[in-house]
Write a structure and sequence with these properties.
alpha+beta; 4-stranded mixed sheet; 9 helices
Length: about 200
């Protein structure tokens, strides 16, 4: 898994989470080694007990060291875990889902296809997936794109720099305000009035 993890990390858009596949196996291997060392340390090596204690201390120190090394990078992200849990009801993805649940297939959120999948059971294009395909040399056609977006589309919830809007939804250039999701940047077609 290390070669594929490295390739996933170095490509455009790659991040440290590309190492997760390798790290899972490393963590499992570490625990298996520690378990084996613990089992070995419980066997009578000789009549000299200090050797058993040294092996157990080595296992405990190794395990503690590995736990610290693997947890330090996650410390900053987990510090505000309590605040993040409290804010779950008002996160953008939840608000997108609630809006789409009340108004199915009216606004397309290219960065959150999960909201549309859950609300109306249809999976639409993911903005970064489209960009990734273009980088790989396999861009999709406009016809293919239009086959997998909502049919009753009245708006697109994106930032002005969004890849999908710039390359596939250029006609959605008029910024509108949708009262239920005022904080969102929503664009409609010029000929369509604001909601």
């Amino acid at each position: 898994m290390i070669p594929t993890s490295l390739l996933g990390r170095v490509k455009v858009g790659g991040d440290v989470n590309a190492f997760s596949f390798s790290l899972y196996f490393l963590l499992i291997t570490t625990f298996l080694i520690c378990r084996t060392l613990t089992e070995i340390s419980s066997l009578p090596i000789s009549n000299n007990p200090p050797k058993r204690i040294k092996v157990r201390e080595l296992v405990a120190c190794t395990l503690l060291f590995l736990l610290l090394v693997t947890s330090i990078p996650n410390f900053n992200s987990s510090r505000n875990l309590f605040q993040q849990v409290l804010g779950l009801a008002n996160n953008r993805k939840q608000l997108e889902f609630e809006y789409l649940d009340r108004h199915p297939s009216t606004i397309y959120f290219p960065w959150n296809p999960l909201a549309e999948l859950i609300s109306d059971g249809k999976l639409y294009h993911f903005s970064y997936g489209l960009y990734d395909r273009e980088l790989a040399g396999f861009p999709i056609s406009q016809k293919h794109f239009e086959s997998y977006i909502p049919k009753n589309l009245k708006g697109v919830g994106v930032s002005s720099e969004d890849y999908t809007k710039q390359n596939y939804l250029k006609e959605y250039s008029k910024q509108i305000t949708v009262p239920e999701i005022e904080d969102f940047l929503i664009f409609s077609k010029e000929s369509t009035g604001s909601k």
